[in-house]
Design brief:
This protein has 249 residues and is an alpha+beta fold. The chain contains three helices and ten strands, in the order αββββββββββαα. It has an eight-stranded antiparallel β-barrel.
């Protein structure tokens, strides 16, 4: 990712006033929060906005969290969470291509100098916004066309009418994400239960090992004792001769 200069923000007018968070329907289940700070590729960022996108594809809708991070010098990146998988994305400038009806899964799309194969085409809707950022496209409760593509890195496009936005990104492993934010892996009841079960299993294995070892030692002791007794018996001489001490002949 080139961070030598600030990334271009989306065109003005794409934002919308952020309503109060709807915790009941779009509660944040990720470890990231608006206001958190992160250090990514040597640059400090602050999470300004969290957006929940609904992605409608083939009759089903899934939801995606998008976190907008901005640095002190106005560089902007996005962290995208989809079903527990994370991506780091940034705005891709200079894309002249405009998606049409032929931009379908399997087709090749020119993202600048990169030819990426389209994997997904869907309709996205902005369902929820929280925070102070204004880089939300589409606006709250508005929809837009959307596609994903791959060519080593991940690419995506969002468009509605004559408005277009193109992004490039890469997958992010959870340990890397935690390192950026200084987070530690949360402990869940399932984690605790797994730990307890593992400890109990270890104790059982140790006790079983001690018991088996004791049994082997007992068998060896009894075998040695039996052998010793047999050897002692085989080396005994004839019974002593009792000499007469006197009497009549």
């Amino acid at each position: 990712m080139d961070t030598s200069s600030p990334l271009s923000p989306p065109p003005s007018g794409w934002g919308a006033a952020a309503p109060a968070p709807d915790a009941a329907q779009f509660g944040n289940t990720t470890p990231l929060q608006v206001g958190q700070r992160a250090r990514i590729d040597g640059r400090d960022y602050t999470v300004l906005t969290r957006v929940v996108l609904g992605i409608a594809e083939q009759g089903a809708t899934r939801y995606r969290n998008v976190f907008q991070l901005v640095s002190a010098d106005a560089a902007c990146v996005y962290l995208v969470e989809d079903a527990g998988r994370w991506q780091l994305q940034w705005v891709l400038d200079g894309v002249a291509w405009r998606p049409g009806a032929d931009a379908v899964p399997g087709a090749v799309a020119p993202f600048g100098r990169v030819a990426a194969r389209i994997t997904t085409r869907a309709v996205i809707t902005t369902c929820h916004i929280e925070g102070t950022g204004d880089a939300c496209f589409p606006a709250l409760h508005a929809s837009a066309e959307y596609l994903d593509a791959q060519a080593g890195d991940r690419y995506s496009a969002v468009w509605a009418g004559d408005r277009y936005a193109f992004y490039q990104g890469r997958p992010v492993a959870l340990p890397e994400l935690q390192g950026w934010f200084g987070l530690t892996a949360p402990t869940t009841p399932l984690d605790t239960l797994t730990t307890v079960a593992s400890t109990v299993g270890w104790v059982i294995r140790v006790v079983k090992g001690i018991f088996m070892g004791a049994c082997v030692l007992l068998i060896l002791f009894l075998f040695a004792l039996s052998t010793c007794q047999r050897n002692t018996g085989s080396h005994q001489g004839p019974p002593p001769v009792v000499l007469p001490t006197g009497g009549s002949h």
